[in-house]
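Table S5 (text form). Sequence records supplied for joint modeling of the three-component complex.
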Amino acid sequence: MANPDLGQRDLQAAATSHRGDRIFNRVVTGAAFTALLVLAGIAVFLGIQVIPAFQSQGLSFLTSTGWDINTDPPTAGIFGMLYGSLLIAGIGLVIGTPVALLLSIFLVFIAPPRVSRILTNFIDLMAAIPSVILGLWAFYILNSQAQVWQELLNQYLGWIPIFQNDSGNFQGTPFIAGFVLAIMMIPIVTSVTREVLGRTPPELINASEALGCSMWTMLRYVALPYGRGGIVGGIMLGLGRALGETVAVFFVLKIVFDTNWYHVIESGGGSVATLIVSRFGEVSGAFELNLLLAAGFFLFLGTLIVNVIANLIVTRTGRLQK
Amino acid sequence: MSTSEFEEIIVLEEQLIEAEATAPRPVELAAQDVSVWFGKRKVLEGVSIDFPKNTVTALIGPSGCGKSTFIRTLNRLHELIPGAALAGQVVYEGQDIYSKDVDPVHIRLKIGMVFQKPNPFPSMTIRGNVLSGLKLSGMKRSGHDEIVEETLTKAGLWKEVKDRLNHAAGDLSGGQQQRLVIARALAVNPHVLLMDEPCSALDPASTLKIEETIRDLSSSVTIVIVTHNMQQAVRVADNTAFFLASENEPGHVVEQGVTTDIFGNPQDQRTLDYVNGRFG
Amino acid sequence: MTTHTEVFDESRLVELREQLPIRPWRSKPRRFTWSVIIASLAPAVFVGLLYVFADIPGALLLVAVYLPVQIFASGLAAYVTRGTRGIADSVIIVNAIGATVFTGIILASLLGSLIIRGWAALSAHFIFQNNVYINPSTPLEYGGIGHAILGTFLIVLISAVIAVPIGIATAVYITEVRGRAVPYVRFFVQAMSGVPSVVAGLFILTTLVVTGALSQSALAGGLAYAILMLPTVARTAEEVLKLVPEELRTGALALGSTRSRTVFRVVLPAAKTGIITAIILGIARVIGETAPLLLAAGNADQTVVNPTGSPISSIPTYIFNNVALPYPDAVTRAWGAALVLIVLVAVLFTLARVIGARKPGR
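The corresponding structure-token record, covering 964 residues in total, follows.
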């Protein structure tokens, strides 16, 4: 740091020359790297589980579908699960994002401050509802409602391929799972977008009002472009959470290994996280457990990537706005 | 004893007092060619000032001329700012305080500091604040009650708070908090007390009290005070140094000397303009 | 003759006293009021009539009929009062209110069903008894979730003992030590907060349980919880430590304090309430997590106090095991346990709000 050419003296080395402080520094620094240690631990210990899975199944572990552990040779492919996780998270995004965005517009720009404060508390509470309770509610309350919705969707919009249903069975569909994920994502996304929209500089809002902008033009040309990065980041944080969600999906999605490509209101779909929990109870031996751990590794990898991108976007926009 | 002898003694005594007042006192703390950087930006250049023992030295100058930065180099608080760098020496008791084998904690114990904004520790009582220096520095001094009374008296706060020593420090007014902070600094027996605009956040009555406190303390402590208030410098300081920074240039000392000279008979035109309020 | 001084004419007082305040900026043209009333009432009346006389399900009616009609009516009203510029605004406002109502209905349904269905299970023995000798068809007069409540407390306690000091130390590294690795540490903590709970469970399972180092137990479950709790504690603690004024730190250092004493005696005490909030939020984050405990803590019917030896039940796993059983009483127990869990979460949450709302350093 110090530049001896200018006659500068090294201050940083001396700043922690006290002995007690050196120990303190070391302990705190060590603790600060726990996060890295845990992440690395997860990557390594779940990562080595991929080796036997690949030795047995090759790359088809990721690209094929099926789960016949007790045949000889056993076959296992989690493509349907990986794709299913993306599909239900995608449905969650499609339903949840507009709601979350409109909700935060209401909280920031429309509702009186007091109403906004109260609603914000409720939405934060909603974010804290445990997923097992969400699953319980979805299983008994949402499910019967969703049957009616899906039948209507099929009846009126059935000519659109994604709303086809030939079996007449509307139980355990990706749509219901996605709807539950949307409910989970709404408070998460809202809390980020609300913050981002709330940080729109009042000068800009005032300026647009002085120019005679309506609320729509203000949103369209000031608030939304200004908060775009943060909003995208918030949506991706919600997506990361949805990809890893296990228990809430467990009760409303019928796990089938065949890939359900786009029949969102047809019974059966996939989810890596739910697969792990649902198979774990009746796991048939070390090999199947190994397969589940390997699946867990890819779940970890996927959510890690989504989260890292989300956080980079959120922090970068945060910095730009300062 | 005849009257003439008596008069002679009086004259001699007066001469002695005068001599004592004007005689150069031993230098306690001295900055020698101190230059300061924040990252690549040089903010101070070649500052050399001697601080004689038990005197008050005022650092004056317009905002942004590096006075506050300079005063923080005198007890090694400067180095806490990331990217801070320094050249030159600060000599205390014949030793460079920035040399490798000097513990900054030890330096800060001997060279205390009072900040612009009163900063009593909110989680502690008034008494706890006065004694906090002892606890934080791990210093052992017996007779805590005496220390509390003595330092609060020195800081001119004892009468106001003696009945509520166990109240939270945050309950005090701004002026009282500042005097509490001075008492806190005195409790560790510093030899030098640095004051960075101690009155700028206070009302005139509190300012007056703090100035009295400074005058009283100067018999036993060497004081360096940064101030924006030129009357204050005239009222409290024995010596004054005038800092100035021209645009995009590092700050430096334009003129320093006995306060009455700086204000009554400045040698530099810029000093004359500044002390007469023509800029700054 | 005119003078420069003027004396207030007392007789004007009577006249002045009768002055009424007016707010010209508030008064809206009559047409405006009527448009708003018609635009708000007409769609509701129309849809209400449809609901009564035509056999269309409520949800479809709301989404497919009411919303478009309301948007149209509001747009029309906006056009009448404000011209074309008003239409887009009215669409936004109607949709925003619609989204808020949608979310509100879901939250109300969630909380309402929990209270209504869970209430039936609640009783003193439900809170204190355990699940031994209870099978899914046992009537509600017997058995309870005492063992699960105790299990949850034990597991959360273990995770807090592990995660809280590390989380606070991480925050201290970021705000106090300010080492060169701060951006990286922040990055890893953020990445860690995205680890799915099931993965945390798998990690403990594969490193400790499968290897035989630890059986399924409160300790294993607590370790899995700690992975989830650590980032929440670290990030919240970082936020509150940042609120501690810099003057306190320099003030302490200027008194000859070391870095460590400054942290322990000045910074952390000044941020005490915020730190407590961070701990509570960390607990609230994990207390309802199910998947890690299914993998790492297992399940038990009896009351377990030994943190290492044997599998242990918890409220979330209790709910999980009872949800899909074909016995009404077992399902009611699940709702009851869910009500207890949500009350715990709400209490923690309110506690964090109340404590967090206090000024730091008071």
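Note: Chain C has a mean pLDDT of 87.
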